[in-house]
Design a protein that fits this description.
By secondary structure, the chain is an alpha/beta fold. The protein has 2 domains: 163 residues, Cobalamin-binding domain (Rossmann fold, 3-Layer(aba) Sandwich); 257 residues, pyruvate-formate lyase- activating enzyme, CATH 3.80.30.20. The chain is 38% helix and 15% strand. It contains 20 helices and 15 strands. It has a 7-stranded mixed sheet with strand order 2-1-3-4-5-6-7, sandwiched between helices. A 6-stranded parallel sheet has the order 8-11-12-13-14-15. Strand 6 and strand 7 form a beta hairpin. The N and C termini lie far apart (60 Å).
Length: 489
C-alpha cells in the first residue's frame, strides 16, 4: 500500500493580475517560495514526506489548485502566506481565503494550516475569518512538525485552533536558534525551478537571463524598528539577526548554479549588509568556487562600509536596494528609519556607484507628517540621486506594523479587502496623512512614478549604462498605466 503524503505546502496562485494589474505581464518577478522550500526541508530531515505546490509559478486557477490538492491527498495542507517582502504577505490573503474555501467545499475533512507573516500578525482574526483548521503563529517550522507528529494540540507551540467553537492558542514556538543546523535542507528539488523570473531591472543589460533566477535567505530577522514594517510579527517582536553560515550559503548558491543553471540571485534578507564577517565570508566563498552570479540584496545607509564594496562587486553584487524613504529628514526620522540625513544618502549613492554597483532606491509617500510639499521633496530628491531604478510606494498600515496598530487605535479607515493592501492593485488604499487624504497620496505616487521614469536625464543614464533595449523597455513600462478605484471615485 502506498504511503499517504504527509505534507503539501502551497504557494497560492491566482493573485498576480489582481496584485500587479497589467504590470504582471512582463515587469513583475515570479519568486521562488523560499519559506515553503525551507519548511519542506525541515520536515524531510525529520523523516516526513513533503511536496510543494507552487500554484503561482504554475499559473494555476483556484479550481486547478484544488484538483492538485485532491490528487496529492496529503495528511496536512500548509498554505504559507509569506511574500519576498513583508508587504507582499497581506495582499495574498484574498486568494488564500478563496483557496481554503474551495478546498473545504471539495473535502470538508481536509486539514488546513495557515502559517506566515500575515497569520502571525493576526492569528485570531485569521482563524475566525478563514476556512482553515489551524493557524501557526511565528516561524511555523515546529508548529508544522507538531501536527505531523500527531502531538496533542495543547503541546504544539504556536498553534491556534478551535475547540467546540472556542478559539484556543498556545505560546509561540521559540525562534530557530541555529539556522545552519536546524534549517540545513532547502528543498529546491520540490520547486519548478525553470518557472521563476527575475525583476526586470536586475537584468536591464541581459533580459534573457531573467528566467535563470532564484532567491534565497542568508539570515532571518532585523535589528531595526521602522514603524511601517511588519517583519517582526513573524519573529515575535524580536529585533536581531540570525545568520546561516557563509559556507552553507555558498553551498546553496553552488547548487543553484551547477544543478539548476541559475545566474540571477535575490538575497531576501531584510538587512544583508550588516555583519561584515558574514557577507565578506560569502563573497570569499563565491570567488573561491568560481561562481558567476548577478546578485542583489538589501542594505542601509548607516550599515554600508566603503572598504567592502570592491569585494562585493567582484563577487557579483551588482545591485543594492536602499530604503531612502523620504526627501525630508524630519519625515524620515519620524518613521524611525534611523538618524541618517540627506547628505549621508548622497554620500552612499556616490560611493556605491563609484564601485560599479547599481542602486534601487525605495521611497515612500504618505507618512503621517507628509504634506504635498514634503512629498514633492521626496520626488525631487529621488530625481537628484537618479538611481538606476526606484520603487515608489505609499505608506500602508500592514498588519504587524506600528502604523497598523496606530491606525486601528485612531479609527483610521483601512482597506476593505486584503488586496487593497497591494501597492499596485486597483483596490489599493494607502493611509491618509495628518494633512492629506488617501486619494491625494495615491494620485501623487502614481504621477511621481511617471515623472521619474520619463525623466530625460534618467532615460539617458539608462541608455548609457545598459543600452538602447533597456531604455525602450523602461519607456514601454511607463505606457502601462494602472487603474485605481479611489481615484475614479
Amino acid at each position: 500500500m502506498t504511503k499517504k503524503l504527509d505534507l503539501l505546502l502551497i504557494n497560492v496562485g491566482g493573485a498576480k493580475k489582481k496584485v500587479y494589474q497589467e504590470l504582471s505581464k512582463d515587469y513583475s518577478a515570479i519568486e521562488p517560495p523560499f519559506w515553503q522550500a525551507l519548511t519542506a526541508g525541515f520536515v524531510r530531515q525529520r523523516g516526513f514526506d513533503p511536496k510543494i505546490l507552487d500554484a503561482n509559478a504554475e499559473n494555476l486557477s483556484m479550481e486547478e489548485s484544488v484538483e492538485r490538492v485532491e490528487d496529492y491527498d496529503p495528511q496536512l495542507v500548509n498554505i504559507v502566506v509569506y511574500g519576498q517582502q513583508p508587504a507582499a504577505s497581506t495582499q495574498l490573503m484574498g486568494s488564500v481565503g478563496e483557496l481554503c474555501r474551495q478546498i473545504k467545499q471539495t473535502n470538508p475533512h481536509r486539514r488546513i494550516l495557515l502559517t506566515g507573516l500575515h497569520p502571525s500578525a493576526l492569528p485570531r482574526r485569521t482563524l475566525e475569518e478563514e476556512a482553515c483548521d489551524y493557524v501557526g503563529e511565528g516561524e511555523g517550522f515546529n508548529t508544522v512538525l507538531g501536527l505531523l507528529q500527531s502531538k496533542p494540540l495543547r503541546e504544539i507551540p504556536g498553534l491556534w485552533w478551535k475547540d467546540r467553537g472556542l478559539i484556543q492558542s498556545n505560546p509561540r514556538a521559540a525562534n530557530i536558534s541555529d539556522l545552519t543546523r536546524e534549517l540545513g535542507d532547502v528543498a529546491w528539488d520540490l520547486l519548478p525551478m525553470g518557472r521563476y523570473k527575475a525583476h526586470n531591472w536586475q537584468c536591464l543589460d541581459d533580459f534573457e537571463s531573467r528566467k535563470k533566477y532564484a532567491s534565497i535567505s542568508t539570515s532571518m530577522g532585523c535589528p531595526y524598528e521602522c514603524n511601517f514594517c511588519s517583519i517582526s510579527a513573524t519573529f515575535g517582536g524580536e529585533h536581531r539577526i540570525r545568520n546561516w553560515s557563509p559556507e552553507w550559503v555558498v553551498n546553496q548558491l553552488t547548487t543553484l548554479q551547477e544543478k539548476y543553471g541559475v545566474e540571477v540571485i535575490k538575497i531576501i534578507d531584510e538587512m544583508f549588509l550588516f555583519n561584515p564577517k558574514h557577507y565578506v565570508g560569502i563573497c570569499d566563498g563565491i570567488q573561491e568556487r568560481g561562481l558567476d552570479l548577478n546578485i542583489w540584496a538589501y542594505s542601509r545607509v548607516d550599515t554600508t562600509q566603503e572598504a567592502h564594496l570592491k569585494k562585493l562587486k567582484e563577487a557579483g553584487f551588482n545591485w543594492f536596494c536602499y530604503g531612502f524613504e523620504a526627501g525630508n529628514d524630519e519625515v524620515r526620522q519620524h518613521a524611525q528609519k534611523g538618524r541618517f540625513l540627506k547628505d549621508d544618502i548622497r554620500k552612499v549613492r556616490k560611493v556605491v556607484g563609484d564601485n560599479g554597483i547599481n542602486i534601487i532606491g525605495n521611497y515612500m509617500f504618505g507618512f503621517p507628517e507628509d504634506t504635498q510639499g514634503t512629498m514633492q521633496e521626496t520626488l525631487d530628491f529621488a530625481q537628484e540621486l537618479n538611481c538606476e531604478f526606484v520603487n515608489l510606494y505609499c505608506a500602508m498600515a500592514y498588519p504587524g506594523s506600528q502604523l497598523f496598530s496606530d491606525a486601528v487605535q485612531r479609527g483610521v479607515a483601512l482597506p476593505d479587502s486584503w488586496i487593497g493592501y497591494s501597492q499596485h492593485s486597483y483596490d489599493c488604499k494607502p493611509l491618509p496623512t495628518n494633512f492629506l487624504s488617501a486619494a491625494e497620496v495615491l494620485r501623487f505616487r502614481d504621477n511621481a512614478f511617471n515623472k521619474y521614469f520619463t525623466n530625460p536625464d534618467y532615460l539617458a543614464m539608462i541608455e548609457r549604462k545598459f543600452g538602447i533595449p533597456a531604455r525602450e523597455h523602461i519607456e514601454l513600462m511607463t505606457k502601462t498605466r494602472i487603474k485605481r478605484r479611489i481615484l475614479e471615485d
